[in-house]
Amino acid sequence: MNTFHLSGYPRVGAKRELKFAVEAFWKGSKSEAELRQTAADIRQKNWATQIAAGADLLPVGDFSYYDHVLDTLCALGAIPARFGFDAATLTLSQYFELARGNATQVAMEMTKWFDTNYHYIVPEWHQDTSFKANAANLIAQIEEAKATGHDIKPTLVGPLTLLWLGKEKDAGHNRLELLPRLLPEYQKLLRELANAGVDWIQIDEPILAVDIAREWLDAFAPTYQELAITGTRIIIGTYFGSVAEHLNLLKNLPVNGVHIDCVRAPEQLAEFANVWPENKVLSVGLIDGRNVWRANLREVIDLLAPVATQLGNNLWIAPSCSLLHSPQDLNVEEKLNPEIKNWLAFAAQKLQELGIIKQALAHGKDTVQEALAASDAAAAGRKTSKLIHNDQVAARVANLRAHADQRHSPFAERIEKQQAWMKLPLLPTTTIGSFPQTQEIRQARAAFKKGELSAADYEAAMKKDIAYCVEQQEKLDIDVLVHGEAERNDMVEYFGEQLDGYCFTQYGWVQSYGSRCVKPPIIFGDVARPKAMTVAWSAYAQSLTKRPMKGMLTGPVTMMKWSFVRNDVPLSLVCKQIALALNDEVLDLEKAGIRVIQIDEPAIREALPLKRAQWDEYLDWACESFRLTSTDADDSTQIHTHMCYSEFNDILPAIASMDADVITIETSRSDMELLDAFVKFSYPNDIGPGVYDIHSPRVPTEAEVEHLLRKALKVIDQRRLWVNPDCGLKTRGWPETTAALEVMVKVTKKLRAEL
Ligand code: GLN
Ligand code: ZN
């Protein structure tokens, strides 16, 4: 029999029970015992689902109250000394303080887990970081899991990935130097697990799928030499990309198996299978742990069957990666179009698929005929469904005229035509789009959604807020105004709800960080815009002022990156379709007299492929898509874009190729250092580096803003420079917002007078 296993399962609960319990515990309305009970219930339910689906090895250690990387740090005693906690006796409250900060210590940093939207806690490495194994927490969960009577397999973040993912806090220190200190404790941890009866353990080393330096690769063999002698059998987990370039290394490591992701990198199945030693497990992930689509079971089984013949029981089957990244259970969805629902599989359904694959490999396809027929029907239906395929959209993409992605004239000519009507002063001021989402706005939206507020009353409430926003900006004497985005719940959802090809779930939550979950929309089909999405709001806002009003759209890459995307066509095609739908909106805004339009692309950097070798190809279509949003826009229409905090050094030429007339970026927290790249590559168009941080309610001082603005003026041509905050203001309150913008405008006027 081929072992069916998995490295992790969603842990927030089908209806986010853990989130609510954790938040109640933080507020003091739930006791620690109650929280622990909720957690234990979730684990039990998860294991029961896995057992029912036929899993052979239940995952342990995938559950976490906050983050599994933090848990691994705790199990190794590697928590930052600055908190003054004793790792051996760490309480649950202290654990949360590490993640969230306390009165004296800021929280440990977090950042995105590879190219997912899951955020892990970033290990803090110091020259003198020490380690001390503490398996108690894991062993308690192991005992719980064993009580089900089933075999188990704990998952841990591997020692090299753990070190690599962390940040060096001391200058001149190389975190790899901590390895000799970490390894003995890692060994001790494994020995304790072995003593607790653990046979198999999965050690995840996903860094093998990204570009890592030679010295890190060289550390693998000696590291696993040490871990191999601890009495457990080790399977190394890789995912999110191909590790075929390390095939020799992996084949020869003294471990008992390796897991590979054959959804992200299907080609590696043959490469591995051809040379895989018979005495080692090869675990193949052909069920997508990162996306929501039902598998084509017949195809998967046909791919696996020859490998099963060759490797026998040493072929294992699994999801491509931890199911942490998929929504939990499709069955609880009540409102999805049944046709679309039939194409989907969330975590629970993915387990069932694996159960069927296992059965087919063991006893032949005949024994799973019914399931195969259902899978075939779903695949065939999806291929031809009218819901997905829109001939007009296909024709439009196929027949794009040459240079459709180019503005009529180069920037130098456009900007003159824009300045001719805009008549802006030097250092024009603007904001990034959203203004405070007040309690009233949110209540109105909730009431409208529940049907308690009529459409007319909802519209009136939003208009009232827009009018207030415009009035405030005029009072502040800001040059280019925005309407404030009151009508938007979320910058992707707002547009997705109005576009063909998108659908939404009720419970498709995925953990983002700690107790926070996101519910990404699903792009299931060709994207088109049936009717204008923002024009009425923007036109209303423009009617209230003589100053230029900026229309506000979310760019194609961001619309895609923050959604589950269809897997039946290339990403580049999906992106272009969204771009063309947005182009319709741009042209309608223009017609309605909105002649400044901002197209936000905060996700353009985070959507970069994990391997550098694939960057150019991605940037080509991503930037082309962005440009396509402005096809046929008049030269005098000023296109803005906005990007949040990210490194630009390595992709600046691509960003320049987007050819937005104005780009606003988050720079204040880096003391304008991010501008260096723009200067180094002589970025040609207008640029608005953020002059204050919007992430805290703190109002910047005039001196701070002046310091940043002078710094920017030193390196950017004064005719190209805009003044704006770092990002949107929707998470702020009004008092601090007006106070901060007052400072911004005052300092701008002072410096303008010197020019
Ligand atoms: N226009 C959006 C806003 O102001 C931009 C948000 C973002 O960059 N993440 O909220
Ligand atoms: Zn932003």
UniProtKB/TrEMBL annotation:
L-homocysteine binds at residues 432-434, 485, 600. Zn(2+) 1 binds at residues 642, 644, 666, 727. Pathway: Amino-acid biosynthesis; L-methionine biosynthesis via de novo pathway; L-methionine from L-homocysteine (MetE route): step 1/1. One of its GO terms (molecular function) is zinc ion binding. Pfam families: Meth_synt_1 (PF08267), Meth_synt_2 (PF01717). InterPro entries: Cbl-indep_Met_Synth_N, Cobalamin-indep_Met_synthase, Met_Synth_C/arc, UROD/MetE-like_sf. It catalyses: 5-methyltetrahydropteroyltri-L-glutamate + L-homocysteine = tetrahydropteroyltri-L-glutamate + L-methionine. Zn(2+) binds at residues 642, 644, 666, 727. Catalyzes the transfer of a methyl group from 5-methyltetrahydrofolate to homocysteine resulting in methionine formation. Belongs to the vitamin-B12 independent methionine synthase family. This is 5-methyltetrahydropteroyltriglutamate--homocysteine methyltransferase. It comes from Snodgrassella alvi.
